[in-house]
Design goal:
Layout: E1 2-5, E2 18-25, H1 27-34, E3 38-39, E4 46-49, E5 62-64, E6 67-69, E7 71-73, E8 78-81, H2 101-104, H3 110-120, H4 125-128, H5 132-140, H6 148-157, H7 163-169, H8 201-212, H9 217-226, H10 231-239
Antiparallel strand pairs: 1-2, 2-8, 3-4, 4-7, 5-6
Helix pairs in contact: 8-9, 9-10
Length: 241
């Protein structure tokens, strides 16, 4: 399943509709992959047949359009599937600006999240979060997994964001080092939820480890919160911010 912005939505002023496209590979594609016939493609929209590594390495010939070929058009190896959508369905997502792995050539990090919030911090909560790829990234953050239902409800219904989710999102709004003024995002929060329990000894030990590496207390707390208390993940966050 490929989910990408509708090409027509790239026009300035238009909503960024998400266009789902579904494909299924053919039996031939499964066999070529199983028998290690294909290698990493060299051209867009083509699959490449690998070269033998030595005289004893047999690579079965691939016949395409009656010829022995070294490249195969991907259209020959896939079947389009029907994706039904209501004709007058209203677009759920207002933007498609959060960078993906396809664009960055690497996985997005907290840096991209901060940049997105910095660019669109003037919007209301449901408008700020109304980006499919942004939601996918938020769901990958350990400390936000329990808040994704309320975040998605905020986007889907345009309702206020729950206080617990707001508290966990706010560290990504400004500078982790506290050197900047920080962003003031006009979130409309719902009724406060019960206060979270105090962090345990593990959190204190994690703070000591990160602070011994030269990070400030505020930086260490931010990274540990973003990493769900995992020290190794927190170190990675700090190294990428």
């Amino acid at each position: 399943m490929l989910i990408s912005p509708d090409q027509e939505s790239s026009t300035p002023g238009q909503l960024a509709n998400v266009e789902p496209l579904a494909f299924q590979v053919t039996d031939q594609a499964v066999a070529l992959h199983r028998d290690l016939i294909l290698e990493r493609p060299h051209k867009l929209d083509f699959c490449s047949v690998r070269q033998p590594s030595d005289p004893d390495d047999f690579v079965a010939p691939v016949i395409y359009s009656g010829n022995d070929v070294m490249e195969i058009d991907v259209d020959f190896l896939q079947l389009d599937l029907t994706v039904s959508v209501e004709p007058e369905a209203k677009s759920l997502f207002l933007r498609s600006t959060f960078p993906t792995r396809l664009f960055l050539k690497r996985d997005p990090t907290v840096n991209e999240l901060k940049n997105e919030f910095r660019r669109y911090g003037h919007l209301s909560a449901h408008e700020l979060l109304s980006d499919f790829n942004l939601l996918v990234f938020l769901a990958s953050l350990e400390n936000l997994k329990d808040e994704m239902q309320s975040i998605c409800d905020c986007v889907r219904l345009g309702s206020p964001l729950q206080e617990t989710a707001l508290v966990k999102l706010k560290p990504y709004m400004g500078s982790a080092s506290g050197s900047g003024a920080g962003l003031s995002v006009p979130f409309t929060a719902a009724a406060p939820a019960p206060a979270a329990s105090a962090p345990g000894a593990g959190s204190s030990e994690g703070l000591e480890v990160l602070m011994s590496m030269g990070y400030s207390s505020e930086q260490a707390k931010f990274a540990l919160d973003a990493a769900g208390g995992d020290v190794n993940s927190a170190v990675n966050i700090l190294l990428n911010t």
